[in-house]
């Protein structure tokens, strides 16, 4: 299964670790999206910055 992660809030004012997680997810500017495989590593990264992103499940 795949998920679509969209950056909905600016990471300014949050920790450098969260900035790096967003960068690793492929999210730069507010409104940018990335599609990833639903794996434990990706879900952990999303959980780390859940307050900054929205997650949608994509049907295959």
Automatic annotation (TrEMBL):
Signal sequence span per UniProt? none
Give residue ranges for domain Large ribosomal subunit protein uL30-like ferredoxin-like fold.
Answer: 3-53
Keywords associated with the record: Ribonucleoprotein, Ribosomal protein
Q: Which domain of life is it from?
A: Bacteria
UniProt entry tagged with the keyword Nucleotide-binding: no
Has keyword Ribosomal protein? yes
Q: Which InterPro entries match?
A: Ribo_uL30_ferredoxin-like_sf (IPR036919), Ribosomal_uL30_bac-type (IPR005996), Ribosomal_uL30_ferredoxin-like (IPR016082)
Pfam families in alphabetical order: Ribosomal_L30 (PF00327)
GO MF annotations in UniProt: structural constituent of ribosome
Q: Which GO terms describe its biological process?
A: translation
GO CC field? cytosolic large ribosomal subunit
Q: Which family does it belong to?
A: Belongs to the universal ribosomal protein uL30 family.
Q: Record's PANTHER family?
A: LARGE RIBOSOMAL SUBUNIT PROTEIN UL30M (PTHR15892:SF2), MITOCHONDRIAL RIBOSOMAL PROTEIN L30 (PTHR15892)
Quaternary structure? Part of the 50S ribosomal subunit.
Q: Would you tell me the protein name for this molecule?
A: Large ribosomal subunit protein uL30
Q: Which organism is it from?
A: Desulfosporosinus hippei DSM 8344
């Amino acid at each position: 299964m795949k998920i679509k992660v969209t950056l909905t809030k600016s990471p300014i004012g949050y920790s450098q670790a969260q900035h790096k997680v967003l960068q690793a997810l492929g999210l730069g500017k507010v409104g940018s999206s990335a599609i990833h495989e639903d794996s434990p590593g990706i879900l952990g990264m999303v959980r780390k910055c859940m307050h900054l992103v929205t997650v949608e499940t994509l049907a295959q």
